[in-house]
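// run 5 | inverse folding | seed 20
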């Protein structure tokens, strides 16, 4: 019922989504390693706060820890961002595809469109 070009686009979107998700999952160990570093920095910051260092030394030490913390958070962000951005783009592609199908097949309900796509695309 729904044209092949629409089905192929749905397949492309799904395939690309899972590819990006798998790329994120491939980075899980790397992200967990960075998480451990972040937790260690937080722990170290707690020790600095409780330490006998004078105010200026304590502030400098905490600022140094914050710089390292920010670096690790930025590293995690940079690992995930390209894949997250791609997935966000796929959401837009999905919306455009749905609108194109609705325009081409105005008599189909949303449920009928969904059922037709799901029957043709491996979910």
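// decoded
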């Amino acid at each position: 019922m729904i044209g092949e070009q629409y089905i192929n686009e749905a397949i492309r979107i799904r395939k690309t989504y899972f590819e990006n998700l798998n790329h994120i999952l491939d980075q899980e160990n790397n992200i967990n390693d960075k998480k451990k570093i972040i937790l260690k920095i937080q722990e170290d910051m707690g020790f600095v706060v409780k330490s006998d260092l004078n105010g200026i030394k304590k502030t400098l030490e905490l600022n140094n820890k914050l710089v390292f913390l920010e670096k690790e958070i930025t590293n995690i962000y940079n690992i995930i961002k390209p894949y997250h951005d791609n997935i966000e783009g796929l959401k837009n592609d999905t919306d455009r595809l749905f609108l194109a199908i609705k325009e081409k097949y105005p008599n189909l309900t949303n449920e009928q469109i969904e059922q037709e796509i799901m029957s043709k695309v491996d979910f």
